[in-house]
Amino acid sequence: MAERGNCIILIGMAACGKTTVGRALAEALGLAHADSDLLIESVYGVRLQTVTEAMSKETFLDLEASVVSSLNLSKTVLSTGGSVVYRESAMRHLASMGVIVHLDTPLATILERIARKPDRGLAIAPGQTIEELYAERDALYRKWADFSLKNEGFMLEQTVQAIVSWLQREHPKLCVPACRG
């Protein structure tokens, strides 16, 4: 396998905390943070929800894959959109950029968070339930993850520390001096 880049990529279901964890993890490691959903918003100049509502699910997935595949990042924690796993080309590109961490959050937590913020951009087929979407994506997240973190009941600091500990054990070259101590 080719040498991987030095990024840490977060994947997982919508509302699992990828952006929140990504920001905190980047700060803890002294790295940059990027969010692919925010990049898509920047391309279109509107909220992600507006973009997803204006397109079919398949068209949005192709757009997301195109944006993600164009990224050339270094020493960055990247929070991705929950649907990025649908396009193999995007996932292969992300895997070449670094390690992929899956935030495995229970369905009940996802449902509660989505209910609190129902206007979040969500690539979902007409008539599909969030429960069905969760089941559909779970295998894809596991397929692509180098590390799957069950973060049920974790506070933000615990989640970040669990990822840092894994990096120290499994990918010490990605662990900048800030986390080697």
Strand portion? 5-15%
Write out the CATH superfamily name.
P-loop containing nucleotide triphosphate hydrolases
**What is the spatial order of strands in the main beta sheet?**
2-3-1-4-5
Q: Tell me the total number of β-strands.
A: 5
Helix content range? 40-55%
Describe this structure in words.
With 181 residues, the chain is of the alpha/beta class. It has a single domain (7-176), classed as P-loop containing nucleotide triphosphate hydrolases (Rossmann fold, 3-Layer(aba) Sandwich). Helices cover 50% and strands 13% of the residues. It has helices at residues 18-29, 36-44, 48-54, 57-69, 88-97, 107-116, 130-144, 156-170, and strands at 7-11, 32-35, 76-79, 98-104, 147-150. Strands 2-3-1-4-5 form a 5-stranded parallel beta sheet, with helices on both faces. The longest helix is centred in the C-terminal third of the chain and has 15 residues, at 130-144. The chain is globular. The model has no long low-confidence stretch (mean pLDDT 91).
